[in-house]
Amino acid sequence: MLIQNSRVPITDIILYGLLPGFLKVFVYRLKGYKIGKNVTIGWGSVICGDAVDVGDFTKIGFFTIIRGKNIKIGSHVSIGSTTFIDTPIIAIGHECKINEQVFVGGLQYHNSSFIVGNNCQIMQMSYINPAISITLGNDSVIGGHCLIFGHNSWLNIFEGYDVKFEPIEIGNDVALSWRVFVLPGTKIGDGSVIAPESLVNRSIPSKCLAAGNPVKIISKDPEFPRIINEEKKNELLRNIINDMIQYFSGSGLHIVKKDNFLTISQDKKALFSKKKQIWLLQIIYDHESVNFYNNLQKNISVLVSLKTITNETRKVLNQNKIMWLDIEKKERPFFWNDLGDEVALFLRRYGVRFNRVKE
To answer: N or C: which end of the chain has fewer CB within 10 A?
Structure first.
């Protein structure tokens, strides 16, 4: 064969994959890869590329293979174990999570691309073939066991069978439920939801609920998604906080609730002693109290606000290293603490994801 492309990069696995993580990062930097701070690469995992850029605090599980010509992975990305990403051009945005046993590869061209926006998630056991290109917008999710094919070639085109190699575009804030099959040439508009076990063989406009085999539009804007008024948003957040209290309590944390404050403590065992760590969480539901930053308690660890936190308030919070979560603007600071990260992770269950913004 003139064009050689081994199925698995055995040489790289032997040379680099079996190294300890910290040593692997050091060697990759010597090779000219741009590897950010606090990056962890699991045992048996390798990155193979001509130009590689990995952002800060990114984690790659064990026996994961990432291979391409140009590879760019953002900061705070998590890629699960035994995942295989093999595409010439790979770009994965910040705060993304790719679960275990995801396969990205298959029949492609020399410039095929796999482009993922910020704050996306791809669930386990999904098979993705970017024959030309697959683009996934910001804040979108691909459910587990999904099949996304950029080509449908097998039978002879000269005998009347269709052969397609076409890009797939999935917009921002799109949700593909589990076991969705997406065919080549598909475009899915921003804010749309595809129901489980659907076959997407056509373009779907923005803000639609689509289902079926083949897919049909069930509901669309302005009925979908429904409009949530301020009173209902307030109620939703209170219910979410109550759910979070139960979850934290069931996970071994001690919670004391008083008005819009939660005192959260955890007993941590040291070698010869036990230490209690205490955090104070403040929740702000109304807009007015966010503006009057002088009324904020300076001893809080985390502030969660339903409405936009003003720049003036953010400045005070940043100066006091109080982690804040702005639900309306979907923003958080670059710094964090254990409680703040746990709250942000819990809010992801309800589709609330945050972008990190500089102070």
So the answer is: N
Runs of H (alpha helix) within the chain: 10-12, 21-30, 230-250, 288-291, 311-319, 338-348
Q: Per DSSP, what are the bridge partners of residue 265?
A: 254, 278
Cα distances (Å, whole numbers) of residue 118 to 22, 43, 93, 171, 326: 26, 26, 4, 12, 17
Residue 138 lies in a domain: yes
Measured between alpha carbons, how far is 101 from 124 in angstroms, rounded to an integer? Answer: 6
Q: In whole angstroms, give the CA distance from residue 141 to residue 258.
A: 36
Q: Are residues 131 and 29 in the same domain?
A: yes
Mean pLDDT of the region 236-262? 95
Give the span between the Cα atoms of 292 and 296, in whole angstroms.
8
The reply to whether 345 falls in a domain is: yes
pLDDT in tens, 189-240: 999 999 999 999 999 999 999 999 999 999 998 999 999 999 999 999 999 9
| Domain hosting residue 338, numbered range | 230-357
Which pairing describes strands 216-220 and 208-211: parallel, antiparallel, or unpaired? antiparallel
